[in-house]
Each structure stands twice: as C-alpha cells, then as structure tokens.
Amino acid sequence: MPDPTPHPTPHPTPHxxxxxTPASRRPDDRQHRLRFHRPENxxxxxxxxxxxxxxxxxxTDAGDYRDRLAAFEEHNRTAAAELEARPGAAARIAxxxxxxxxxxxxxxxxxxxxxxxxxxxxxxxxxxxxxCTNLAVPGSTTTQALADLPLLAFQRPDWVLCMLGANDAQRxxxxxxxxxAETRRNLTALRDxxxxxxxxxxxxxxxxxxxxxxxxxxxxxxxxxxxxxAADIDATADFLHAQREPAVDTRPATRTHQEPDxxxxxxxxxxxxxxxxxxxxxx
Length: 283
Fold this sequence. Notes:
Helix 3 crosses helix 4. It is globular and about 50 Å long. The strands form 2 sheets. The chain has a 5-stranded parallel beta sheet with strand order 2-1-3-6-8. The protein has a 3-stranded antiparallel beta sheet with strand order 5-4-7. A hairpin with a 2-residue loop joins strand 4 and strand 5. The chain is of the alpha/beta class. It starts with 28 loop residues before the first helix and ends with a helix. The chain is built from 15 helices and 8 strands.
C-alpha cells in the first residue's frame, strides 16, 4: 500500500539522539516512515545493507536506528505474550504446523512490511529454531511480487505466507493499477512457480478490509487521485478462498482497525490479523 501522510505511531522508548527535526517534517515523521518502510528489502538484490546506510535514509544514526527497531521488537514481543495469554490461544499456537528447522517467508506489501505487522508478532509465538524472513515491500503489487520471485525462491522457504492484492485494487483516477484478471494470473503464477522451484507449502491471507469513505476523504490519496473499493478487495478474497491452500480471511478482523487513512492497519488491527491466522490454521 502507498505511504500515507505521517500520523502518530507508538514509540515505546525515547530518541537516542537530540538531532533537531527538520522544519519540513512533522515530529513523528521519522518513526512513521521507519514503521512502514523496509528499504533493506527493496535493496536486497545489492546484498546486505549496513545499518549506517539504512539509518541515513531515515535521517538518523545507526545507534538511534537500532534503538527504534529494538522498541518495535519489544512491542511485538509484548503483543505476542498478550495473545498467548488469551483463552484457547495456547492450544492454537501449539497446533500450528511450523516446526524447528523450517523457514517461513512472508510475501506482501505495507500491511506485512509494517514493523508492527502480524508476521512480526507471529515470529514470537513460534518454537525456537523456526526461521522467519519478511520479504514484504511497501507498495508492491502482485505484478511486482511476481517479478521478484527469484529472490523468494533463493530463500528456499518451507512455508510461504502470502498477503497481496490490496495495491492491485488501488485505482488511479478510477483506473485499476492491475486488472482483476491480472491479479488472479499473478497470484497463481507466484504460487505455482515458487512451489515448483522450492517445494514450499503455501498459505494465503486476504487483503485486509478498507474504509472507502475514509480513503476517499484522506487528503494525500485525494490529491493523488487514488481510491479503493471494498468490492475489489472482496473479489480477490473470493479468488483466494477458491484455491486449494488454506486462506485466512483478514477482513472481518480488521474492519474497524484502520489508521486515519482508512487503509493501513493500527497495531490493534495487526494483532487481530495474527489472531485470525491462529484461528484459521488451528480451529
């Protein structure tokens, strides 16, 4: 999903540096951008990107960058502990099919790239020895994800958790960026080619729900001519539910958990997606 105009994001720890914030940016802009952007994924073809370079992209130093990531991680660890303490959760977690020695890879856009995402919470609920890699790229369409299939296959995943389609449903001046037929083709090809190359098992997650009234009125989207239709999201969800693999319907769980832009999920919405995943994989 596209990057919305910055808005407040929880920040559990104080800033490490006292570098003044540029007048052109709001005080929470750096934290917001760090939450929703993973430049290391977009730059993965170039190899590992050092923290100093990544920190510079966010206008800070490596120490502050690491502190902020650690704060996100602590938030997710706490969210996982809260989910684990809920009635029935322990049995559902124990019944997950992921085993030590296996590699889980997430493919998606900003909902999955979010530093508070469902996948980042899930990793804290899994047994030691389960490896997790988040390949999500904010703004990615299914076409772009298909083009990045060699990077996915290179990971040699045992499981792929795929949450794509929200950006395909994005319309620019009323014209869809990716047609429904192209979305279906891309998702099918992404799965089939990955499974053929790696033997990975596949799990779908539907795009989360959107609030069209709020996306239509959100200034950043309105000025850019961007819009979303719940019907487009539903059509992708229906297609995923018709596939042979498990499909987690995230729409009911996220219906009231959008950020002010009506599109991106709040941290509570991300926890709700994690709960929906647990329920779907171990009813």
